[in-house]
Amino acid sequence: MAFDISSFKNNSVRVKFDDVDYDAFRERPLTPAALRTLRYMSDVESHTICYLRDLLVTPSHKDPEVTAFLTHWAYEEFWHGEALDEVLRVHGVLADYAHIREVRLAQGVADRLAPINQALAANIIGEDFVAVHMSWGAINEWSAHAAYARMMQREDHPELTKLLKRVQKQETRHLAFYASQAKDRLERSAKARGLTRFAMKAFWGPVGSTIQPKRETAFVLNYLMGGPEGNKHIERIDRKMDEMPGLAGLNLVRKAVAKYGVGPGVAERRRALVHRLTGLRAAAAPRARTVAGALTRPVEVPKPAGSGESTATA
């Protein structure tokens, strides 16, 4: 079913969090692991405006339906960050605009080059690049939806659950738009399918991994996606992406989180590494034997003129 952009626009509101009982967090605080994860989530939500900046230099800005969605998407994501920050502050965690500024400044040169790279690549490719953008958005929103579900499950805190269900409800509408757009665009163009498959396989990583230190991404992935329950979410997202035209079999989430030591793909990654090392060792063996043979080969040592011939071993 096509996404109803008019309904989305007319019903877009800031997430409600002024009725949350914050005293409940003082009586029963969240775990340190949950707070560390919430900080990561808040940083990602607050960085949405920077993602939007990069998207608007691509052909996506030419489609009024896409820009209508992005306008409200950025607005809702901003308030998600504000809501999570309120929970952090109750726990004594610094959560203000100074921190957000630090996160943005920490991106360095890569942040300044990002819109340039996006503009050059996307505008050379043209309209088919929008399919990459939409597919990327779909997997990110599915990941966010799963992350909030796992946070609620792990902490089992009534007030946190009340807030995150509201956030999750808005994320559901976001992923519906991205998934609908991605499917339509991939169905229409073989070039879009090939381009998107290549880009997702080569460049996609877990949400937040481009703006957070690797250790933080690893911690959050282990907290949210570790264990049997986490595996279910990983496999569910990959199945959703399999349903996209031209993207079947990529196992994007499985492979991406395995790089951080999380999920069912870890064992496969280790086996692949062992296989690769075994292959390298086997390939190097003949050269090693050649070098060893050269080092132990008898070497002729010339004798002074008029003397008999002899050989010496090096």
TrEMBL record:
Coiled coil: none annotated. It comes from the Bacteria. Transmembrane segments: none annotated. InterPro entries: Ferritin-like_SF, RNR-like. One of its GO terms (molecular function) is oxidoreductase activity. This is Ferritin-like domain-containing protein. It comes from Actinocatenispora rupis.
